[in-house]
Amino acid sequence: MRLILLGAPGAGKGTQANFIKEKYNIPQISTGDMLRAAIKAGTEMGMAAKKVMDAGGLVSDDIMIGLVKDRLTEADCANGYLFDGFPRTIAQADAMKDNGINVDYVLEIDVPDASIIERMDGRRSHPASGRVYHVKFNPPKVEGKDDITGEDLVQRDDDKAETVKKRLDVYHNQTKVLLGYYNNWAQSGQAGAPKYRRIAGVGPVEEIRDAAFAALAE
Predict the structure, then answer these.
(1) Which CATH number do you get for residue 136?
(2) In this predicted structure, what is the pLDDT of residue 59?
(3) What is the C-alpha to C-alpha distance for residues 40 and 50, in angstroms, rounded to an integer?
(4) pTM for this prediction
(5) Each residue's pLDDT tens digit, 150-174
(6) I need a surface site. Which of 24, 45, 83, 102 has the fewest CB within 10 A?
(7) Torsion angle, CA of 95/103/106/179, rounded to 10 degrees?
(8) Adenylate kinase active site lid domain: from which residue to which, for each copy (predicted)?
(9) Which residues span the domain enclosing 83?
(10) Residue 122 is assigned to a ligand binding site
(11) Is residue 51 a known part of a binding site?
């Protein structure tokens, strides 16, 4: 199973990625983790990336694709792999195609912006333990207080509505075009084209998981 997981920030990709990884026994390819590992290991690509990052620049698509190709040769990718957060742009998607990095499925988790904002903006966390609540879906017994310690809950800056809206704007401007890119490729009938599947990402986590598994079995 080789797949790309697409969806807006806050759509629940991380949660579903964990279910998919376990079911198919495949690793999640995170470009951030990959970069850190390559730099730590001192690989050629890792050193090239470090040089750019130390100078305050953005790592080029060529280096990122090189890192991805290196990563996919590792033993844990024998059964496949799951990309989450890559590619982010059409240029990266083209580079993957040009370098023969194949995928079987592109799975889109579709959640309306309003649902994402409600989901994120309602989160409250207990910093010391990492326990997370939601003012609507999973409220604490006492408003604003941790169930176990009684200490104050906080809202992370990343979860505030204005921050979430900005992240969604970036997604719509930069990454959403990938949905059309992969959908059109899937419908083209070309050799090597992935299957494109869209599932609704609203509702109980288990229902979304079952929908994802069903989509990947088609």
Answers:
(1) 3.40.50.300
(2) 84
(3) 10
(4) 0.85
(5) 999 999 998 999 999 999 998 898 8
(6) 102
(7) 20
(8) 123-158
(9) 2-216
(10) no
(11) no
